[in-house]
Automatic annotation (TrEMBL):
One Pfam family recorded for the sequence: Aminotran_1_2
EC number annotated for this UniProt entry: 2.6.1.9
Chain segments annotated as transmembrane: 257-280
GO process terms (BP): L-histidine biosynthetic process
Any one GO MF annotation of this record: histidinol-phosphate transaminase activity
Alphabetized CDD domains for the sequence: AAT_like (cd00609)
Natural source organism: Paenirhodobacter hankyongi
Record-given protein name: histidinol-phosphate transaminase
Gene3D superfamilies: Aspartate Aminotransferase, domain 1 (3.90.1150.10), Type I PLP-dependent aspartate aminotransferase-like (Major domain) (3.40.640.10)
C-alpha cells in the first residue's frame, strides 16, 4: 500500500546539514551561508532559558501570554493582533495554510527565500515568481501587475533575502493601496532590525492603513542570535487574522525555553542593537574592501552582503568551501551573485582574503 504523499512527492529535499566545525587540517570552518548571528544569546537570555528548563516537565503556556505582552509593550500593537511561532518559518507556513487552497496562486519576488515556493506547492497552489530589479530590489509595479483573480497570498520582504534590498516607504504605500483586497499581504521582516538600523522605513504604520488582510512576521533568529532557539512573531491587521494564525499553528510548538528566552531578549534591547550595529559595520567594511577588486555589492542592509563577483570569476562558493568558508549564491538576472553572512571581524578578514585570492584565479 502506498502512503498518501502525492502532494509532497515532487518536492526536492535537501536536509539542512551542519557543516563540520573544523577541517581535516584543523582549521576552523566559517559558517557564513545561513544568515546566522556570530554572537551567542546574551548571558541574561541564557540564564532565563536555563531557569525555564528546570520546569521542562510541564507544558509551556500555549498562548505565550508573557511573550505577547512584551511584544505588545514594545510595538504599541495590541496583544490580540500579535502571534508567535517556533521561528518565523512556522508563521510563513501558517500564512500559506490560512490563505491558499489548491489551484490558488501565491505571488513572490524571485529570487526570494525558497520556503515561499515550497509552501505554495505544499498547499497545491501555483507559485508565481516576479523577477527583482537588476540591483536586487523588489519590483513593486511588476508584482502588482502579476496579480490575478486567483492570487490569494503575496510575499514581500524587506530587507529582502537573498539581496538585502530595502523597500522604500513609497513602495510599501503603493503596495498597501494597490494590492487588491482578495490578496493577503505577507510582509516578511526577518531582517527588520538591520533594515531599521540602516534607515529603512517602519513598515507597520503604513501596513496598518491597508483595507485588505495583512500580516508582518519577524524573528529572534538574526538580530538576537537565537536561530537555534526557534522564536518568531508577527502582527496582523485584525485580531481575527491573528486568531486564524494561532488556530493553525501546532500546539505548544514554542518550548518554555524559547518563550523565556524571547521575553529576556526583549528586556534588553540595547544588547541586540549594539550587535546589529557591529554587524552592519562589518558589512560595510567587507563591501569597501571588495569593491576595488571588481566586486559589486548590491544596495541594502541585512546581516549578509550580496555582491556580484567580477566577470569571469571562477565558482567562488566552491573555492571558498575548499578553504573552509561556507557562503552561498543565487541567480540575479543573467548573473550569479554571492550571498555572504556577516560574522565577526575575523570572518570578514578571512572572507575578503579568500575572495581576493580566488576571484582572478584561473577557472
Ligand atoms: N524569512 C526570511 C526572509 C528568512 O531569510 C528566514 C531565515 N533565513 C526566515 C524567514 C525564517 O527564519 P526563522 O524561522 O529562523 O525565524
Amino acid at each position: 500500500m502506498s502512503v498518501p504523499v502525492d502532494r509532497v512527492s515532487a518536492l526536492s529535499f535537501h536536509p539542512l546539514y551542519e557543516p563540520p566545525e573544523i577541517l581535516a587540517d584543523g582549521s576552523k570552518v566559517r559558517r557564513l551561508n545561513l544568515n546566522e548571528s556570530p554572537f551567542p544569546p546574551s548571558p541574561a537570555v541564557i540564564a532565563a532559558m536555563t531557569r525555564a528548563a528546570a520546569l521542562g516537565n510541564r507544558y509551556p503556556d500555549g498562548e505565550a501570554r508573557a511573550l505577547i505582552e512584551a511584544l505588545a509593550a514594545g510595538s504599541g500593537i495590541p496583544p490580540e493582533r500579535i502571534f508567535v511561532g517556533a521561528g518565523s518559518n512556522e508563521l510563513l507556513a501558517a500564512s500559506a495554510e490560512i490563505s491558499l487552497d489548491p489551484g490558488d496562486q501565491m505571488l513572490a519576488p524571485l529570487p526570494a527565500f525558497p520556503t515561499y515556493a515550497k509552501l505554495a506547492r505544499l498547499r497545491g497552489a501555483e507559485f508565481v515568481g516576479v523577477p527583482l530589479h537588476g540591483d536586487g530590489r523588489i519590483d513593486v509595479p511588476a508584482m502588482l501587475a502579476a496579480v490575478t483573480p486567483r492570487t490569494r497570498l503575496a510575499f514581500f520582504s524587506s530587507p529582502h533575502n537573498p539581496t538585502g534590498g530595502i523597500m522604500t516607504a513609497e513602495d510599501i504605500l503603493r503596495l498597501v493601496q494597490e494590492l487588491p483586497e482578495h490578496v493577503m499581504l505577507h510582509f516578511d521582516e526577518a531582517y527588520y532590525e538591520f533594515g531599521r538600523a540602516a534607515g529603512a522605513p517602519d513598515a507597520l504604520p503604513i501596513l496598518s492603513t491597508r483595507k485588505g488582510p495583512w500580516i508582518s512576521t519577524r524573528t529572534f533568529s538574526k538580530a538576537y542570535g537565537m536561530a537555534g532557539v526557534r522564536v518568531g512573531y508577527g502582527f496582523a491587521g485584525t485580531p481575527e487574522l491573528a486568531l486564524a494564525i494561532r488556530k493553525v499553528r501546532p500546539n505548544f510548538s514554542l518550548s518554555r525555553m524559547a518563550l523565556a528566552g524571547g521575553v529576556a531578549a526583549l528586556a534588553e534591547p540595547g544588547a541586540s542593537a549594539a550587535l546589529v550595529a557591529l554587524i552592519l559595520k562589518e558589512r560595510d567594511r567587507m563591501a569597501a574592501q571588495l569593491r576595488p577588486a571588481g566586486f559589486t555589492p548590491l544596495p541594502g542592509a541585512a546581516n549578509f552582503l550580496a555582491l556580484l563577483p567580477p566577470p569571469g570569476s571562477p565558482n567562488l562558493v566552491d573555492r571558498l568551501r575548499d578553504a573552509g568558508i561556507y557562503i552561498t549564491d543565487f541567480v540575479l538576472g543573467e548573473t550569479r551573485a554571492l550571498r555572504i553572512t556577516i560574522g565577526d571581524a575575523e570572518d570578514t578578514n578571512a572572507v575578503v582574503s579568500a575572495l581576493l585570492e580566488n576571484a582572478d584565479a584561473p577557472r
